[in-house]
């Protein structure tokens, strides 16, 4: 039996990278899941507050992110969809695991190093607090708690989460070594084919919710015109023709990838896309990318506007999801608590 778990931060409307790198894979897993498999997807608001968030904004994002999960086709009857802070077991498990978490290892995490360099240099991208706090440092321990407390066997993510999941596996193994075999399950990471969608303005950086320039990302709620406009202004280069070479032509290669991964099987590989666009101008490449992206995410946008208008339904789904998530997380949490001697 598979237990599929993954999470996304409710820190804005998800973008094309979130969709191709994660959300669409969640949907595919749902469509291919066996009757016994569990599908658990969390809006990780506890992770979101490891940097400063405006409370009003956070409330809005929690709602919008849930509407997006429904809009991409996740079925609340089939999946457990919930906000992380509604299920205290995550934080309780995190504290238990913290004993196992080496501060040296945490300090070497790429995301910690990136974020703290930005915070310290003052390149902070949102209303971040000027100095990184304890929770940002402990972020990967909470992420490990997320997957371990639900007994996840498989975790679908983009490439940037691979290191965090390796850390989760090591925590599980180390906990089991101290307290007993089989208490925690080291999960398998599932990396999507579109594992790293790059920024449209700086194709050497990944597309991200927190980058300053909104033209760097395509949001799942962007209109057809906005998608066209952002892709039209995407940074490419002055080499003639379309080729695929991410190291030398990151901008062009990112657009080739975008076409491939939104083509719905029309193309089997980057080479297929390049062959089709041989000799095409940058403008034609961008137009083709805009069409392809619109075809893939247009239907998500339409659905989103229906779901976001129905607040009552969103609340019901969140309440029901939280209840089911509590039940599921309770099993492993109890087991871990007993193993460490809390059951006197
Ligand atoms: P987050 O919210 O940054 O991103 C959500 C998912 O989107 C993927 N992703 C991308 N994939 C390809 N290209 C990109 N440019 C891109 N940007 C984001 C991410 O890899 C992720 O799968 N720490 C996690 C949230 C989390 C989590 C978990 C994930 C918390 N607990 C437990 C899995 C399991 C995060 O910040 O994702």
Automatic annotation (TrEMBL):
Belongs to the class-I aminoacyl-tRNA synthetase family. Keywords: Aminoacyl-tRNA synthetase, ATP-binding, Ligase, Nucleotide-binding, Protein biosynthesis. GO terms for molecular function: ATP binding; tryptophan-tRNA ligase activity. This is tryptophan--tRNA ligase. GO terms for cellular component: mitochondrial matrix. InterPro entries: aa-tRNA-synth_I_CS, aa-tRNA-synth_Ic, Rossmann-like_a/b/a_fold, Trp-tRNA-ligase, Trp-tRNA_synthetase. It is an enzyme of class 6 (ligase). Its EC number is 6.1.1.2. It holds the Pfam family tRNA-synt_1b.
